[in-house]
Write a structure and sequence with these properties.
single chain; two-stranded antiparallel sheet; 13 strands
Length: about 270
């Protein structure tokens, strides 16, 4: 029985391994006379023992979009004080949105709707529209944009829009409840709260309007609440500072631009 437990549940096929990005990276290292790695274990060990060289190679391999190149890759070996990519300037969202094609970027499925697809060209447009609206609402570099949201396209769009500006993104699952969310968002004092009006779990609909309203009352730094209509319930939006997502985002928006930021500029605030 113990021998059975030691066996892996799944192994990639030779074709899967050949097509893997990790294989492409190892081939790149070999072609550039940087390092010969024949398997994952060798690559892993090299990444630990030569971290600076590993991440410099990874930066080049991925062709990281940047406005200013780093003058050093890694300074120091104390994780609490180490400096990565000193003097580099770049934008996280710009790198994720480098494709503007008809390829599928997001595949979304929920309990109540059929599978939906968003292509890269459409994703770029949606991010541009939301980023433009956030700027008009006064969101600037370093401001916090918080989301009380399920795993849905607006979560990705919101994160990318905030990141393009240099704002800091944070999110909580709606099932945390009012106090759980307040304990988290109350610390970061977001300027904008993005929320779903309701969500469905196991066939039951849970209202989020009341929770959003209480959060706005408890966190005075929230200047605007953007409400995503889930089509799960009928309600009147009678919350001070609240606006529907579709009304907040205009059909006329500025071209998407990307704030160039230091490598150590904060991107997310996450919670354990």
């Amino acid at each position: 029985m113990s021998n059975e437990l030691e066996q892996p549940i799944w192994r990639p096929s030779d074709t899967d391994v050949f097509k893997a990005n990790m294989t492409s990276f190892m081939n790149y290292l070999f072609s550039q006379n940087i390092k010969t790695c024949t398997n994952y274990e060798e690559l892993y060990e090299w990444s630990l023992n030569h971290s600076g060289m590993f991440w410099k190679s990874f930066w080049d391999f991925c062709d990281i979009i940047h406005s200013e190149a780093p003058t050093s890759i890694l300074e120091g070996d104390d994780i609490r004080k180490a400096v990565w990519f000193r003097n580099a300037k770049l934008n996280f969202a710009e790198n994720l949105l480098r494709k503007n094609s008809n390829d599928i970027a997001i595949k979304y499925r929920s309990e109540t709707k059929p599978t939906d697809y968003i292509r890269y060209s459409e994703l770029n447009e949606k991010v541009a529209a939301l980023a433009s609206a956030l700027k008009k609402a006064g969101v600037d570099k370093g401001d916090r944009v918080a989301a009380l949201i399920t795993n849905r396209p607006e979560a990705i769009i919101g994160m990318l829009a905030a990141s393009s500006i240099g704002a800091v993104w944070s999110s909580c699952s709606p099932d945390f409840g009012y106090q759980g969310v307040l304990d988290r968002f109350g610390q970061i004092k977001p300027k904008i709260l993005l929320t779903i009006d309701a969500y469905s779990y196991n066939g039951k609909v849970f209202d989020m309007i009341y929770t959003a309203s209480k959060l706005a009352d408890s966190i005075p730094e929230i200047e605007e609440i953007i409400v995503i209509d889930s089509d799960l319930q009928e309600y009147d939006l009678e919350i001070e500072k609240a606006v529907y997502y579709d009304d907040f985002v205009s059909d006329e928006y500025e071209e998407l631009t990307f704030e160039q930021l230091p490598f150590d500029h904060p991107l997310y605030i996450m919670y354990s």
